[in-house]
Every structure is written in structure tokens, then in C-alpha cells.
Amino acid sequence: MRFSILPFGALTDTLSASGISLTNEQILTIEDLHQYLTTTYPAIAQQKFRYAVNQEMVDTTHHLQDGDEIALLPPFSGG
């Protein structure tokens, strides 16, 4: 399956990219993706963030589909 990963905020610096294309047949859920990211980018494990798939917030049990766009969203604040 192919995914587009879009980090936001400090996660962009952690991943050293504003976007990543990933093809991996072993990643089926957000939990699988999280494990892949924390193994590939260990510094990301120290950061708090949530996942959105195709602009909808999801939990770690969400099943991914080919072509999904996955945003990594750190806590936001503002006014």
C-alpha cells in the first residue's frame, strides 16, 4: 500500500521532511504505522501527536487504505 505522510509543526523537523511517500505492505493500521515511525525516527517517540487520515481524526485501530493521506498533528494552541 502507498501512503502520503504529512507532518506538522515540530514533527516536520523531527522527520526532516514536509512530506513522505511510503510504500509498505506490512502497514495495515495506524498502530502499525506508529511502530514503523518510532523505529525509523526514534525521536518521534518523545513527541505527542495525533493522527488524521484523509482529514479525519482517527485512533490507532483505524485500518488504512491504499492512497490514504495521513497527517501527524501535534497539539495546537492559539487564540
Automatic annotation (TrEMBL):
<comment type="similarity">
    <text>Belongs to the MoaD family.</text>
</comment>
<protein>
    <recommendedName>
        <fullName>Molybdopterin synthase sulfur carrier subunit</fullName>
    </recommendedName>
</protein>
<dbReference type="Pfam" id="PF02597">
    <property type="entry name" value="ThiS"/>
</dbReference>
<dbReference type="InterPro" id="IPR044672">
    <property type="entry name" value="MOCS2A"/>
</dbReference>
<keyword id="KW-0547">Nucleotide-binding</keyword>
<dbReference type="InterPro" id="IPR016155">
    <property type="entry name" value="Mopterin_synth/thiamin_S_b"/>
</dbReference>
<dbReference type="InterPro" id="IPR012675">
    <property type="entry name" value="Beta-grasp_dom_sf"/>
</dbReference>
<dbReference type="InterPro" id="IPR003749">
    <property type="entry name" value="ThiS/MoaD-like"/>
</dbReference>
